[in-house]
Structure formats: structure tokens, C-alpha cells
Amino acid sequence: MSPLFETIAAEPLVPALCLTIAIALGVAGCLLVHFMPRSARVRAETAALRESEARLRTSEARFRQLADATFEGLIIHRNGIVLDANTALAAILGWPQELLIGRSLYDLCAPSGHNLLRAQLEEINKGAANEVGDTPVEFQLRHADGSTIPVEVHARTMPFENGDARVVAVRDIRERKAAEERILHLAHHDALTGLPNRNLFRDRLAQAMARARRSGSTVAVLCLDLDRFKPVNDLLGPEIGDELLRQVSLRLTQTTRADDTVARLGADEFAFIQVGLAHPDGPAFMADRLVKALSEPFTICGHHINIGTSIGIALFPSDGINGDELLRAADTALGRAKEAGGNAYRFFESEMDMRLQERRRLERDLRQALSSNQLELHYQPLVDCEHLTVTGCEALLRWHHPERGNVSPTEFIPLAEECGLIMQLGDWVLHTACREAASWPADKTVAVNLSPLQFRQPDLAERILAILDETGLCPRQLELEITEGVLIEDTERTLATLKALKAHGIRISLDDFGTGFSSLSYLHRFPFDKIKIDRSFIWAMEENPDSMSIVRAVIALGRSLRITVTAEGVETAAQLAWLQNEDCDQAQGYLLGKPMSRTAIAHLWANAQGRAQSELPLIPAKAAE
Ligand code: C2E
Ligand code: MG
Ligand code: MG
What we know:
- The protein has three domains: 67-177, Beta-Lactamase; 189-348, Alpha-Beta Plaits, CATH 3.30.70; 394-607, TIM Barrel (Alpha-Beta Barrel), CATH 3.20.20.450.
- It is an alpha/beta fold.
- It has an eight-stranded mixed β-barrel, surrounded by four helices. Strands 2-1-5-4-3 form a five-stranded antiparallel β-sheet. Strands 7-8-6-11-12 form a five-stranded mixed β-sheet, sandwiched between helices.
- The protein has 24 helices and 21 strands.
- Ligand C2E binds next to β14, α15 and β18.
- Ligand C2E is lined by residues 380, 396-397, 408-410, 413, 429, 449-451, 481, 511-512, 535, 568-571, 588-590, 595.
């Protein structure tokens, strides 16, 4: 026998005894009532009935108190008619509690929930409705003031007054819904401007495309990129930049219709979906309005700020059949609008896509060029205007592609900057120029162009000094040509790098002067060794007196700051004569020598030893490119 059975069997007497006594007392009670006189029995029965009624009332009141004390609403209904409801439910609905009894559930439910209610009632009739433990159902109730209240309900069947009824527990989930909506809003909107973010934009675009597919209509995607936002942000600070973005988003929403989506995709990138296009010119009209709206000045903290926007437009379904394709097409068109100088819009054209593919091919080829000896440096003489002697050369990168032939640096340098190859390319140029110039006469300089992106390398100065060390070129023979873009980027770090280089005797030239910001404060803040006047001014001098005045003013400025001035692009004897007359220090141009190969330059140095350097042209035509 198991130990459990042993325990039970060991103590059988106690419960048996209790049971016997209870039965005996019960039987005695019954006999007592039975043998009472009739009147006394009736009195006793009435008293017992009253007592049980009173007990029932107390218990009912206690249950009602209990029901009213809960925070959840409770409804008891049969076939959709309310039999009872607690005060919490009356409070949720804003109805007096007594008016709820006898009402149809349809009166309490918001019209949007009627179908669900009907389905639930039908299930109850079929006996298949939810029981305890089943998933709660979300409903929409109708408040007395007409508003909709989201609730969560649990229901079960229980016996109630001569039959079965449904008891429904109703939980007000307004707060939870509001919190959920806030979270959803944050996940789908940009915190700074409150505009839809990229995720929501993609959703809306997918919906717009699905609708357009059904109706055979067109959707336009407009990608916007602000012009000149970066300088504003850099010069006036991020607080003003943020406020500017907020004001931009306000103007965008005011310019568009409420059912159009305007989104912020990135720092100063916005996008816009235009649906329901009644007219084929709709996107052009809209783009024009947006360009105009953003070209009006903004006033922030007393600053009058002028920016603008460039817009690229792609159409569904002609330019792309999914979101990615459309955005890519709009982005390509945006690049075209930027190239046009900003404050403009461009439609995507399939030939642009071909251009994009061509760029990718070129990028792949350029990577290969670095490793397969297709690159070479040519050198263009820099000539002293007074004595017409060659003081040095500018190194210019040449790419000879096996199939494409010579590719211009104006084409591949920007590409290398875009795809990040410029660092490798820049290093190669510095190495090669220093190594080749190390065999030149000691008084001849070599000028190397540096891309603004190369200045992002914090160790640029050390790298250049290491290259000088390795190649044996004297620092005084090296000139670095930079454009103003370099100074705009990160002024403090750039100035520190330039000063470190200058401290080692390397000379710094400001290239293409007049084409960038041409801020005179740069000349003041950084002691350049040379200013190179952009060739466009030299070419325009003969026809345009303004250009002549500018060139004259820059020569005078250089003289007063004790900076060498070089005129670029000198092609005619008249230009050279004029520059000599104005006491310009140096000239560079096809008249004085085209860029030439390493061997041609070696010949030049060899010949220059014994020949009079005042004769023009300095470079025999066959040695030039
Ligand atoms: P840049 O530094 O202003 O170079 C001068 C450009 O003007 C060169 O064009 C040169 O061939 C051209 N040029 C010089 N004299 C004349 C003239 O009398 N008439 C005409 N029509 N053109 C003249 P290139 O070699 O095509 O280079 C264009 C630009 O590409 C350069 O402008 C420079 O910004 C960039 N570049 C060239 N090589 C390099 C390099 O190694 N690194 C970097 N970062 N940029 C480079
Ligand atoms: Mg240059
Ligand atoms: Mg230049």
C-alpha cells in the first residue's frame, strides 16, 4: 500500500463522526418543523423567506457596489439589448446610467463598429462567441457628444435572470491609442520639421502608385535639394540652419495641397508626391511654384537669407515602375538641375540614365587606370613675365584610356571626387610629381593641384612631408595649388594644415581666383604665396573692360600683399604684352607653352641652359601636346 493510502486509512473516524452528527441534526431539524403546529410553521416559513430576500438584496447591492467600483465598464446584454451596465461604462459613454438599460448595443457602438458588432451577435446566436481567455476585441464606441472612443472588450456567457446573458468588460484604451499614435508618428515623421520621413514617404509613394496603376493615371515624384544651405549652416550656425529648414518645410506645405505628400528625406533634401494629375504640365507648374517659393528670402534672427532649390522630376509609370526606380530617376534629374546652376527644375530623361551608367563605367575604368599605368603627368610652364624665363611647371594629370583615348581631367577629377578615388589619385600625383621634379634644376618649381577633398585627411601635411622625404625633392621646389573651395570647408583645420606645410618652405597658390567665393578675407587670413587669376578673365579682357579692371585690381592687390600674381590661359601676344605692361609677375598659357610630357620638359631644361629665353614661343610646337 502507498504511504498516502496509509495516512487516509489511519484516520477514518473523525470525518465519519462529523458527518453522522450533521445528518442527525438535519433530520432532527426537519422533524421539529414537521411536528410544529401549522400557524407556527407558516410564520417560520415567511420569516425564512423574508430573511432570504433580504440576504438576496444585500448580496445584489454588494454586487452592484462591486460592479460600480471597478474601473472597467461592464454591460450585461441579451441579444444585443442592455440588461444592466455599471457606472464606469456610463462614464466612458457620457450617458446617465439609467438610460443605458434597455438600449440596443448599436446605439452605443460607433457606426464604424456596427459590422463587427453584427458579426459578434451572430456568433453568439450560433453559440460560437468568444469565451474567457480568448483574445480581446477592439471596438469603437460612440460618446454622447458624438466622438468615437476606442475600447477593448472581453465577453463571456453567464446565467442571468431566467436564461443566459453576455457579460462584457469594456476597457477605455484612448490613452494607449494616443501613445501608440505618438510612437507611430515619431517613427514616420521627421522630428525637426514634423514632415513625413523617408519611411512614410515610401509607403505613400507605394500607395499612390497602386492607385495610379488601377486608374491608369500618372504620379509625379519631385526631389528637392536646397541650394546654398551648407554655407548658411556653416557660417550662421546649426540653430539658424534648423530654423531655416523649419521655415522651408512650412513654405513647402503652404505651396502644396493637403492631400499631396511633402517629406524630408535627408539634411536639406525634400521630396514631394503629386497625385491626381489632371494636366501633363502639372509637375512643371508645381516645380516652378516651389522654386519661386524657396527663392524668396528668409528672415531668421535678423539675418536675411537667400537660398534656393533645385528639383528633379520623375513620372510613374514612364520613368520607373517602383519606388526605388522613381527616386533614382528623380535624383538623376536633380543632378542635372544642380549642374544648371540651381534654382531650376529638370525632368528625368532616359538619356540621363545612360549618362549615369556611363559614369559608372568610367568610374570602374578609372579604378583600373590607377593600377594599369594609364595615368601620366604632363607639365605646363609657368613663365616670368618680365624675363620670359620658365620658373617652373604645373603638373597636370593625363589619362590615356586604351579605347576612349585621352580623357580630360575636367571629366574624371570630379568623378574621382564623387566616388572617393581622389585620395588615391591625389597621392599618386604627389608622389609622381615630386619624384620626377626631383631631377629638375634646383631653381625650377613644380606645382601640384590638390582637391578640396584631400584636405579632409587630417594627416595631409605629414603625408606630403613624407613624400618629399622619400623622393628627395626640396620643399622650396613644391607649390600646392588649391581652390577657394578648400578654405570654405573647414577653415580652422585647413588653415592649420596649410600653415604647417608653409612652415616647411612649401609654397601655396590660390588657383582659379575669381571663380569661387573670392572672399578677400581668405587672402587676409592666410598668407598665400601666389594668386592665379582664372583664365576666363584673361580671355574676356579684350572684349570686356570689366574683366580688364578686375585683372588690373588683382595684380595691384597682389603687389600690395607681396603675393605673386599669375595670369592663366594666356593665348595671344596682345594678352602677354598687356600683362607685362601691368607688371603682372607670371603668365601661363598655350602661348608660352602647352602641357607637355616628362621627356619634353627634360629637353626644355637641357635646351634652356644655352639658349636666349626671351624668344617666343618658348616651347617648340612639336614638343607640345
Ligand atoms: P587648372 O589647375 O586651372 O589647370 C589649368 C588648366 O588650364 C589645364 O587644363 C591646362 O591645360 C589649361 N590651360 C592652360 N593654359 C591654357 C590656355 O592657354 N588655353 C586653354 N584653353 N587652356 C589652358 P587641364 O589640364 O585640362 O586641367 C583642368 C583642371 O583639372 C585643372 O585646372 C585642375 O583643376 C584639374 N586638374 C588637373 N590635374 C589635376 C590633378 O593632378 N589633381 C587635381 N586635383 N586636379 C587636377
Ligand atoms: Mg591648377
Ligand atoms: Mg587654374
